[in-house]
Amino acid sequence: MRRRDVLAGVLALAASPASARPPIPNHGTPRDLLSSPFVDGDGRNLTLADFEGRVVLLNIWATWCPPCREEMPTLDALQARLGGSDFHVLPLSIDRAGLEPVRRFYRETGIRNLDLYIAGDTRAMLALAVVGLPTTILIDRIGRERGRLAGPAEWNSPEAVAQISALIDERKQ
């Protein structure tokens, strides 16, 4: 294949609308994932192992992060649409001030379908190799990382729903 043809293909891919591509780049091979403890809205200590058996969309965010704040309603809508025994959106806040800023943010923005989770220190970011916010990790039913996105996305878009639904449906095959 000629260099010009390869370049044309790359440019065509880059020119396609972002909404037409799956929001999370999938890994070729699932990756093991570390998890440090975090706390839910009731003060219970949890790890990602507590969610095994469900597909999880782990979103690491903070109330002070503008792109995080912008995408939270789309995560809320995704949880309302797909959430249940097979799927869970896990919005893990790294706010050091505790759960109250997160509760206040949920009230102010009308978040109704997402549970509260907080990592009180940087261990979660280090364990998950997060370098920027928001970072979202798609996790399969046995706790392996299937894909990762650094930056915001429209999580209730048809492309996101299709990508996540395909992973949910893998168990049924």
TrEMBL record:
TM ranges: none
Top-level taxon: Bacteria
Gene3D superfamilies: Glutaredoxin (3.40.30.10)
Location of the Thioredoxin domain: 25-169
Subcellular location per the Swiss-Prot or TrEMBL entry: Cell envelope
Keyword terms: Cytochrome c-type biogenesis, Redox-active center, Signal
Classification via InterPro entries: Redoxin, Thioredoxin-like_sf, Thioredoxin_CS, Thioredoxin_domain, Thioredoxin_ResA/DsbE_sf
One matching Pfam family: Redoxin
The keyword Signal is assigned to this record: yes
Residues making up the signal peptide according to the UniProt record: 1-20
Stored PANTHER family: PROTEIN DIPZ, THIOL:DISULFIDE INTERCHANGE PROTEIN DSBE
Name of the protein: TlpA family protein disulfide reductase
Species of the source: Paracoccus albicereus
